[in-house]
Amino acid sequence: MDAFLAGMGTLLDPYMLFLVFAGTVLGIVVGALPGISGSTTTALLLPLTIAMTPAAAIAFLGSIYCAANFGGSITAILINTPGDPSASATAFDGYPMAVRGEAGKALGISAVASAIGGIFSVFVLIVAAPLLARMAYQFGPPEYFALAVFGLSMVAAIGGDSPVKNLLAAALGVLLATVGLDLTTGVERFTFGAYALSDGIEFIPVLVGLFAISELLEQAAQHGTVQSYIKLKKVELPTLADFRKCAKAISLSSVIGTFIGVLPALGATTAALICYNETRRWSKHKEEFGKGSIEGVAGPEAANNAAVGGAMVPTLALGIPGSTTSAIILAGLIIQGIRPGPHLFTEQPILLYVVFGSMLAANLLYLVMGLGMAKLFARIALIPPAYLWPAVFVLSVVGSYAPNQSMFDVWVMLAAGVVGFLFRRHGFSPAPLIMGLVLGKMVEETLKQSLLIFDQNWLMFMTRPVVVVLFAITVAGLAAPGLMRLWRMWRASAA
Amino acid sequence: MTLPAWRSRTDLLVAVVILVFCVLVYGLTYRFDAVPAALMDGLGAELFPRLILGVVALMAVLIALGVGITPMAAPPPVHPMVWMTGGAMLAFMAAVEVIGLWPTAFLFTLGLGRLWGERDLVKLGLSAAALCTVLYLLFVRFLGGTFPKGLLASFWS
After folding, report:
1. Alpha-carbon gap: B140 to the closest alpha carbon of chain A (Å)
2. Is the ipTM of this complex over 0.85?
């Protein structure tokens, strides 16, 4: 109770309230800007948080994370271009609604469904994270190793068009994490004698490069594309009839979205796409989908925001990111000297209450702002690329340089940007690489510690029940798509 | 030689590039400093990177064989604007060393905006000035950072 009161006291400080407000506004605005996702924004603004306290940093980044998914729906509905990838499913029915003259109604249900999904998931976070942390309190290095491998295996299902390519990108991220001094032997690895690399590759330049610079180059490749924009008169609150029609979609998607968010690596985009399909499957008006169904907007919007709270559960309780953005938030906490995990719940309970409170506040704030100021946000979303992207580049340079005052970091950012651009051109997603980079050190450290405990006997992993279960789930998860394909081929040939 | 339908030439090329990368990086692991015998208990510094390189190489082979991937058509040629934008970034890096970060940031915002099709230079100039002022106030005045001033600054001072 003392920690709760202290956490609320910290959150009610005017400076913290300002940060939550600023994070929410920034989240909606950048979420609405096509090309700049919540992940890009958190990566771009990570350097700013270094000067903040850990509580302020996570409240700020958490607010951006909550609001960006809603912001993405504004452009998904008005210009058929999701501002954030998590809003891609919203465009399927949101844009046809806007074409039909119901843009205000679509934005209204989007704001309400997003807030319900988001708030539901924060309550799940408040209940589930401490329970998971209590369970994980008994975990040793072998369990953490198995957990990190499971987390990395889950990247097979995110972004990009191929699980193998995602796994390869994640492995490259882990390899990148080995650059620098080896902690157990003190041997320098892949540093080429450069002092700047002896502490390893800095998170910030790599994150900024992979997200912001690669997207800038991607936007340059789309030079000259003109988007048509549907004018928004005003945002309408859903009527009772609309709400009744969408209640099942919102509640189902909130639950599924939160669950998908909890699974390591799977974030809001996966949740929204799955819930769009589930909403259609359980709807009484299947024929309306794709032509402007209000349920088709409510379902994915509730899901992508529910995934946010869900994704924070493994991030805080285990130190395993639940999504790309939570991986960036995790990197931010590591930079601050905090390693999330079960110990956080006993050592820093105030910080956790600040996280819970700020996420709840951000969900309520974007509901109010979304209903009252969507027209303004929609206008901001139309900033011409010729103004937006040069500014993103300058912010990327300043943000990469500032933490260490090093031009070397700026070069790393540019290199990461080129790698990210080449990745996208060849069907790889940069997100798994980030997961690998963030989890890489943990994988290596826990493997080495485990082998010391087991006296270098790898088979001893199999004597730990939790490890066996996690390895079994990992193998099953990796093999399932292939087995399903074989099953379908066998059935097709039998028929 | 014609490739089977399930195998994309682009993916094959990607796989070969990654395998060459793996071989090169694997070679680098032989150049790590020797570990004193007293510290040799457990995994050596080179073993974990080699293990990961093995995973990367295995995935590259799977890509080459077309297993677990959606075959990709060759991506379109890189748009000239990408090359020009990349060139502008390199020019930015060079200019920072000469005239410092803030004047370079102003000129870059103006120049790239023009390159990307904005005709109104006054509007661009105002937005570039506003951006640089906000970032300067935030990172220099508020956060106390120092940024490269360039070679010319030393001549002037």
Report:
1. 9
2. yes
